[in-house]
């Protein structure tokens, strides 16, 4: 025998449960080679180590050793168990050892946060982009009606714009909103902007809303048309629906997996009118407007002119608590966009 009496094999006190009754039996665990020996009053069993499972450490909670037949022991003496494991040459798994090292735990946490940030920053917009074209028409219609109801529920009031002016703007949009001889789905509504002032936005179904104040700010119909085509670009690319989908993971989940769009509907007005589009979406809508203006023999600089006028108008109103410079906050990097439209840096195809 190689084991000397001066160096007894390490042992651990534990409680044994046979898997059939709730009764706890005090036992002692020892290791002999690759066998785990369990001894108690009238109890004895020997199990090969590979056949037993050791639970991961969770603070001061007992470690559980589970046997193949469903019986288990609870070990509360963590220090003695560690000595036993060390003596056997067994080590806890990598993740278990790491969880005792603060630096490793921090590294794991940082990795997890990075993964979450990436999912939020790139995964969610990507998922929204994939999902937006598949949102059923009924949902798109419901989102649009809900938003229009909110607008007409006190945010804006009936337009006082001359009917003939309304008609000439409508005709100009009808003539411009065509691709390959096909008319693009659209509708045009006029409202008095109230606190929202000079403003224009698109509902997901292609309905464009323009305020009397924006028409007044524009020098002519072509400048209004430039803004309308920009908004039509947002509607065509379903930007509003995408913003809505990526605005709430829970609403997205409810809509896709449970078919319940009520939370999406509730969010629609804020997401579609008050929240901002991303820089990429603005560029895409600018490019669309520039292309459509060119086809009408008009200059994309018309949109740049309007961006400047809108920026100036909302700057002037900024000190008023009622003013809502949403058009600008929702149209970031205005100066960069103006330069891009003037320099013809946009994508023509
Ligand atoms: Zn825009």
Give a nutshell description of this structure.
With 349 residues, the protein is of the alpha+beta class.
Note down, in words, how this protein is organized:
This protein has 349 residues and is α+β, with helices and mostly antiparallel strands. The chain folds into three domains: 84 residues, PH-domain like, CATH 2.30.29; 34 residues; 209 residues, no CATH class. It is built from 14 helices and 13 strands. The protein is elongated. It starts with 10 loop residues before the first strand and ends in a 6-residue tail after the last helix. The N terminus is likely disordered.
Please indicate the count of domains: 3
Give the overall average pLDDT.
Answer: 83
Q: Would you report the number of β strands?
A: 13
Strand content: 15-25%
Radius of gyration (Å): 34 Å
What is the chain-wise order of helices and strands? Answer: EEEEEEEHHHHEHEEEEEHHHHHHHHH
Spans of at least 5 consecutive residues whose pLDDT stays below 50 are: 1-6, 319-326
**Global shape:** elongated
End-to-end gap: 86 Å
Give the topology, please.
Layout: E1 11-17, E2 25-32, E3 35-40, E4 43-48, E5 53-54, E6 63-66, E7 72-75, H1 78-88, H2 94-98, H3 102-131, H4 137-155, E8 157-158, H5 163-176, E9 178-179, E10 182-183, E11 187-192, E12 200-202, E13 207-211, H6 212-217, H7 221-236, H8 239-247, H9 249-257, H10 262-274, H11 279-295, H12 301-317, H13 326-329, H14 334-343
Parallel strand pairs: 11-13
Antiparallel strand pairs: 1-2, 1-7, 2-3, 3-4, 5-6, 6-7, 8-11, 9-10, 12-13
The chain binds zinc ion.
The site of zinc ion (ZN) has 6 residues, from helix 7 and helix 11.
């Amino acid at each position: 025998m190689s084991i000397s009496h001066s160096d007894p094999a390490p042992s651990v006190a534990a409680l044994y449960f046979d898997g059939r009754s709730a009764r706890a039996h005090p036992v002692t665990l020892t290791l002999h080679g690759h066998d785990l020996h369990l001894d108690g009053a009238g109890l004895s069993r020997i199990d090969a180590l590979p056949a037993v499972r050791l639970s991961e450490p969770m603070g001061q909670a007992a470690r559980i050793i589970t046997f193949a037949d469903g019986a288990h022991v609870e070990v509360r003496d963590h220090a003695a168990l560690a000595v036993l494991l060390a003596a056997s040459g067994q080590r806890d798994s990598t993740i278990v050892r790491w969880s005792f090292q603060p630096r490793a735990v921090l590294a794991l946490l940082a990795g997890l946060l990075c993964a979450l940030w990436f999912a939020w920053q790139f995964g969610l917009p990507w998922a929204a982009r994939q999902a937006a074209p598949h949102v059923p028409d009924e949902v798109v219609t419901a989102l649009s009606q809900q938003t229009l109801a909110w607008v007409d529920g006190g945010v804006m009031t009936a337009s006082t714009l001359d009917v003939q002016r309304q008609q000439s703007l409508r005709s100009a949009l009808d003539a411009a909103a065509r691709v390959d001889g096909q008319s693009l789905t659209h509708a045009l509504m006029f409202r008095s902007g109230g606190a929202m002032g000079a403003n224009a936005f698109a509902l997901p179904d292609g309905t464009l809303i323009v305020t009397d104040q924006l028409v007044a700010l524009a020098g002519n119909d072509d400048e209004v048309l430039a803004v309308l085509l920009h908004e039509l670009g947002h509607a065509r690319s379903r930007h509003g629906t995408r913003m809505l989908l990526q605005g709430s993971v829970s609403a997205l989940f409810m809509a896709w997996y449970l078919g319940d769009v009520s939370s999406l509907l509730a969010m629609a007005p804020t997401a579609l009118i008050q929240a901002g589009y991303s820089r990429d979406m603005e560029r895409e809508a600018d490019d669309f407007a520039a292309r459509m203006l060119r086809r009408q023999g008009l200059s994309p600089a018309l949109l740049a002119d309007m961006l400047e006028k809108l920026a100036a108008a909302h700057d002037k109103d900024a000190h008023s608590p009622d003013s809502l410079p949403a058009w600008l906050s929702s149209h970031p990097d205005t100066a960069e966009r103006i330069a891009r439209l003037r320099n013809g840096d946009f994508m023509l195809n």
